[in-house]
Amino acid sequence: MTESDVAFLFPGYGVQTAGMGQWLFRHCDFFPGMIRDIQHSLDVPYALEPLLTSDTSWPDHDELAAQIAIYLVNAGYDRALHNYKIRPSIVYGYSSGIYSALSCCGAVSLRDGLGLVCEAYRCMKVGMAGHKAGMLAITGLVLPIVQEIMAEAEKYGVVVIANTNSDRQFFLSGDYQALEVAYEKARRPGLLNIRWLPVSIPYHSPLLQSAAAQFNTYIRKIELLEPDIPLVCGSNGAVLDRVDQIRELLVKQLVDPVDFPRSLASLLERDVTDFWEVGHGSFLAKLLRREQRVRHIFQAEDWLIASHSSEYTLGKESRCDCE
Prior knowledge:
The chain folds into 2 domains: 240 residues, Malonyl-Coenzyme A Acyl Carrier Protein, domain 2; 67 residues, Malonyl-CoA ACP transacylase, ACP-binding (Alpha-Beta Plaits, 2-Layer Sandwich). It contains 13 helices and 11 strands. The strands form 2 sheets. The protein has a 6-stranded mixed β-sheet with strand order 8-7-2-1-10-11. It has a 5-stranded mixed β-sheet with strand order 6-3-5-4-9. Strand 10, helix 12 and strand 11 form a beta-alpha-beta unit. The protein is α/β, with parallel strands linked by helices and 323 residues long.
């Protein structure tokens, strides 16, 4: 494959599992040093190595711990692919995966990207203090029916489509009381899945307008660079390649919805043929498999583990451990 037809897609909150950084610590020589450097250079409210390697899950609703872990594991797999000389021509970040995408394309340093993760969460948490909100996942209903459900729920508070993952999978975000109404209205025979998401923040909703304003103040202090490769916006599929566009995106993405099919269409319009999910798990790969035009899907985690095992069996030093 060539860089011209490769896209890196970075997952966001929700893919976390306990110990998801263990393989990177054990088999990628660069990773422990990378984590130590971050720990020493940034005031992070966790000991990072145990966060990434412990088999004991972090407490429920510790959304910041999960987002930090996801960002660092995404970065580890990105670096490991780099050591295999696999690089993208364009990047995409799903929800909070945007910070990983920005680091990958050179718009922010690894350290500043993690700073953005932490500050965005702080702004959202402060902005929602005393406000009971949440998110709901609905799978199996088409958009017009979801909109009908929302019309009833909106009588009790804010409720919006925060994430469109496919034509039959949506995440709703908003006031808790309104979401409770939506939950009851959506329950029906044959519905594949309706569930509460384990979050306390109404991500990608207008309830975060004040948080976005606070976050904008912080963003002005961060050094943003012209990206080496373009970035696809998660809300409208726009292709961004300038600092001013990225600065605007960072503020708006707290409030704007995620529209994965629209972003995927933008990638396909640029003749991307090889789609790499660069992070833990297979959430994005499962969404990609629903699109017939997607030719090749790679899960970086599985590919790297398989490649390392093959080289170890043959008595070769893994290139993942280089540099």
